[in-house]
Amino acid sequence: SNMPRLSWRLGELAHASGLSLPFLRKEAREGKLPVKKVGGAVIVLDGDARDYLAGTLTPRPPGGAETVAA
Questions:
Q1: Cα dist from 53 to 1, 30, 56, 67, 69, whole Å
Q2: What gap in Å lies between CA 40 and CA 4, rounded to an integer?
Q3: Measured distance CA(6)–CA(15) in Å, rounded
Q4: What element of type H or E holds 50?
Q5: CA distance to 3, 13, 21, 69, per residue, from 26 (Å)
Q6: Residue of 15, 52, 53 lying closest to 31 (CA atoms)
Q7: pLDDT in tens, 2-61
């Protein structure tokens, strides 16, 4: 498909990046990796994932996932 990727589930991001799933969950809990909850899924927007991995993401206050109405 020619459509760009919009988001990643944490497990997919762990696999693609080589980082562990528990580490990414910890980073999300601490506000270092922004996540959104859509239904039962926890996702990371592609732009946020790229910025996080590049070290150019500004950390957010801890507090968990932003919930998005599905």
A1: 24, 16, 8, 23, 27
A2: 23
A3: 17
A4: helix 46-54
A5: 30, 14, 9, 24
A6: 52
A7: 889 999 999 999 999 999 999 999 999 999 999 999 999 999 999 999 999 999 987 666
Nearest to 55 by CA among 31, 29, 33, 24: 33
Structure-block tokens of residue 38: 């859509």
Contacts for 27 with CB less than 8 Å, ≥ 6 apart = 33, 52
pTM for the model: 0.80
Q: How far is C-alpha 29 from the chain's CA centre? A: 11
